[in-house]
Design brief:
The structure is a homodimer. Chain A has about 220 residues and is mainly α. Chain A is built from nine helices and no strands. Chain A folds into two domains: about 50 residues, Arc Repressor Mutant, subunit A; about 160 residues. In chain A, α4 runs antiparallel to α5 and α4 runs parallel beside α7. Chain A is globular. At the A-B interface, α1, α7, α8 and α9 of A face α1, α7, α8 and α9 of B. The structure holds a DNA duplex (30 and 30 nucleotides).
Chain lengths: ~220, ~220
DNA sequence: GTTTGGCTCAAACGATTGTTTGAATATAAA
DNA sequence: TTTATATTCAAACAATCGTTTGAGCCAAAC
């Protein structure tokens, strides 16, 4: 954190802030703390980001750019439906593992009323939903059926995120090694859970479109 | 918000803080804002709660007390497994609907490093996990198999919470009426999702214990 | 050599923060 | 009625907050 001075100051500020915001929350971290750890002067924050809120904006945009790319890659492939679910879970989990703090900061800001980033949030989430709509269509779920769409989409992404949000507390309790083996198991477990769960939903809510879903039972 | 002066000042402070914290986050809300809306003097916060952090502690404890009660009621009944899942989802969704802000503040604090509440969080989550362990055992999931337990538990509760976390953003985008009908659908959809998903997991990871799970396929 | 633009700095600013303090008021108990 | 306890108040405090400002340094361009 901030000890690699070959990086550009702007990058150092950003990465330091990502770490600190993820750990303590945006409002609990001051510009002096960020500047100190990033080894820059505090006026650099206004200079490079137009102020503290500008850091948060940059973080959220970086998250969405990266995340959207991951989703798009999976969508652009011709795979079976099971393969797509597995790929999607795998890619997302790997993405979050590599960008845990970036993800946490972004997700953490979603429910909060922060006027300066409201438009950014709406815009970015809107774009994500459009992107995922195509995936949903492939699954016999009707993206125009907003009731189901509004339920299943958030449920799935939140399931994937669950571990990472609970991890700081869970780590003290369950005495589990969160190593590669654990994450392989994580991906496999969630993929199974989703495949069966989605099959159940398609059978129940859109039986006419369930024909192209492979039978795993 | 703070306009019912028949309530005790302590209660008014607590409820006001729950609302404001849920909306903006703990650190973004100052004691003067809370006091103003609760129509009390700011020194009341130190008097009744020993300071601002004491409010957060009280909120978290209130959440856990209420939530644990909901879970316990469902666990104490002799129901089929499907009934328990349905009951649990229903009770939790209704609980969150009635205590949305209380839930949001508590869940929101989980990933953050706030030293003053670290022990409280660990203690309370530990207690919850113990309580849920009994439920898990009823489902043929082995609570001593911490890998699966650590994955499925958080995934399920996060799925249920998903809507409520995304709701502030989603509300601007999807133009859905979040009325009783929506929540009935919500409960039904998630229950279906979980039942099928759990069946898949039991078949895959604990086939020897899957005998008592009804076949929905 | 001079000018220009970009980067960095320390000091300063006005505002805000949570907590404390001692006095005043209200309530309960003797 | 008096005394003790609990509640409430406004002022004050030290610390911290994010932003700004003007100066200084450096490299590139003229």
């Amino acid at each position: 954190m901030g000890d690699d001075k070959t990086k550009q100051p702007r990058r150092r500020i950003l990465e330091t802030a990502i770490t600190l915001f993820a750990q303590k929350g945006f409002d609990a971290v001051g510009v002096r703390e960020i500047a100190k750890h990033a080894e820059v002067n505090i006026s650099m924050i206004s200079y490079y980001f137009e102020g503290k809120i500008g850091i948060l904006k940059a973080i959220i945009e970086e998250f969405h750019n990266k995340y959207f790319e991951v989703i798009s890659q999976v969508l652009s492939r011709s795979l079976t439906q099971e393969q797509v679910v597995r790929q999607l879970v795998t890619q997302i989990v790997n993405f979050i593992r590599e960008n845990t703090n970036l993800t946490m900061v972004t997700i953490h800001s979603l429910p909060l009323d922060i006027p300066e980033i409201a438009a950014l949030k709406t815009d970015r989430v809107n774009k994500l939903i459009d992107g995922i709509g195509e995936l949903v269509r492939q699954y016999g779920l009707d993206p125009d059926n907003k009731g189901v769409f509004a339920i299943v989409g958030p449920a799935i992404i939140s399931s994937i995120l669950a571990h990472f949000r609970f991890k700081p507390v869970q780590k003290n309790i369950l005495q589990i090694e969160f190593d590669d083996a654990f994450y392989d198991r994580y991906i496999d477990t969630l993929t199974t859970f989703f495949l069966y769960g989605l099959k159940g939903i398609i059978e129940k809510y859109q039986p006419a479109k369930g024909d192209n879903f492979e039978n795993h039972c």
